[in-house]
């Protein structure tokens, strides 16, 4: 009989616990199709305990000097680096992306911790001496309080690290609810955080689904919410959190367009497009999912794409360094992606490369697909497929391509491939998305720059990462100071005289 997979623990007030939950969901290894752990789905009682622990830890932690808080992040950074390969292997095991992709993810996460070590400098305020007669002005940044992070399945390591290192370094306390599909990376990251010397209760980890999310985003003692996931849930979390008086940043889904101009270096562009569309099996919010072929480039582009994508070694990735693309997250998701390809066919598109037939065994593997002659009335253009599928839309001119971008309700990333500075400039200024690439397949910023999604790809004002991340996790206070000259200072004793 196969062993029953172990329950994933929660961390409350510095103690690891196995929850006595009524409901569980399985964590799968997408390379084998086997369940490797059970995620307990918590309830409001769990949320109450986690938020109470975070609230209790807040006074001491927020008063801890920022340089001491940063020192914990320095220790954490060292531990994440020491355990780098183990963390990457865990991402591959529970998510399915290749080891090289998992390493890249952990590297991006590590950079967030590096960024958090520099937070003390970013907390320094501004001063304006003599802003009025005998009055000095200054600003300071204060923590917002108890912060919550709710994360998606597609970056089990990096997206949690987008949130809590900055929040904690800014003096807040934190409750993380990772995706119930990939909780193992979050558990290992939390163990390392405890080892780094973080005081009990500053960081707490809970597991669950909608019930836990709802309890977190409406809890009286929660002050700020960071969410990353699909658009429908991002909008719901934003609206519900705001209605309950919280500060919310909520990043949603995407449909990222890659424009290929007729003057582009076709070879380089095809490689960049394939890396963008099929990296992490297309399960990235910055994945290029629509190629906009402008003018005469369409046929050559599709021919080269089909050749190149067809040569990618799609294979189970766990323990297999030769896999060029891994499986998707679940059997259900594999079916969803396959049915999106079928719908495109029914709606009149041309499946130029079909990944549905790939030999997958028990894994959740799909091969790369190219769908040609997609138009903007088809669901392949309208909906986020979130799998290894690139749709090709033909456009006559750059203006037509910009208009297609404008009609897209999302607005995460977009790239252009061209040798023309003029075309690149027009695109940079006018494309309707918040993250722009010029001859770059995945224009995803690193820790020091904000992740500036637009439209239905982001709800809120202050984005994740960079200075905006620090601003999200802090409140500004402005102080005006005036000291009155006393009779003693102005008349009696000459020791007080300054002029
Ligand atoms: P998801 O929206 O299904 O889940 C995200 C989180 O929300 C999980 O923790 C989940 O437990 C919770 N959740 C799910 N349903 C809920 C509900 N009904 N009520 C309350 N909470 C709920 O997203 P996913 O499938 O895990 O992740 C993929 C999505 O995330 C894609 O749409 C992708 O584009 C998006 N994403 C966006 C970014 C970005 O920066 N914009 C980054 C990564 C992923």
Automatic annotation (TrEMBL):
InterPro entries with a match to the protein in the record: Ald_DH/histidinol_DH, Ald_DH_C, Ald_DH_CS_CYS, Ald_DH_N, Aldehyde_DH_dom, MeMal-semiAld_DH
UniProt record, GO biological process: L-valine catabolic process; thymine catabolic process
Single GO term (MF): methylmalonate-semialdehyde dehydrogenase (acylating, NAD) activity
Keyword flag Oxidoreductase: yes
Matches recorded under Gene3D superfamilies: Aldehyde Dehydrogenase, Chain A, domain 1, Aldehyde Dehydrogenase, Chain A, domain 2
Residue ranges occupied by any Aldehyde dehydrogenase domain in the UniProt entry: 23-478
Keywords in alphabetical order: NAD, Oxidoreductase
PROSITE patterns in the cross-refs: ALDEHYDE_DEHYDR_CYS
Superkingdom to which the source organism belongs: Bacteria
Keyword Iron appears in the UniProt entry: no
Protein name listed in UniProt: methylmalonate-semialdehyde dehydrogenase (CoA acylating)
Organism ancestry: Bacteria, Pseudomonadati, Planctomycetota, Phycisphaerae, Phycisphaerales
